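chain below, 69 aa
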Amino acid sequence: MDGLTRPKPERVPVGSEAAVMGAHDAAVVAGRSSYLDPSTRLTVFTARFLADRNYCCGSGCRHCPYVDS
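prediction:
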């Protein structure tokens, strides 16, 4: 499921893709449910956490595996 590895492009600040994915991947490996966005310092849920929750909350999460857009 690509939603578990790639964020929605429109939800990542331009130029910060590598930093976002580094933070996301480190959080997944560490078993954390979230990470701090490197640019904004806001908390972002990991794709693994969102998939394990088994539903979309409709909040537009960056790594939501349930929404195609």
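The mean pLDDT is 87. The longest strand covers residues 34-36.
thats it, cya
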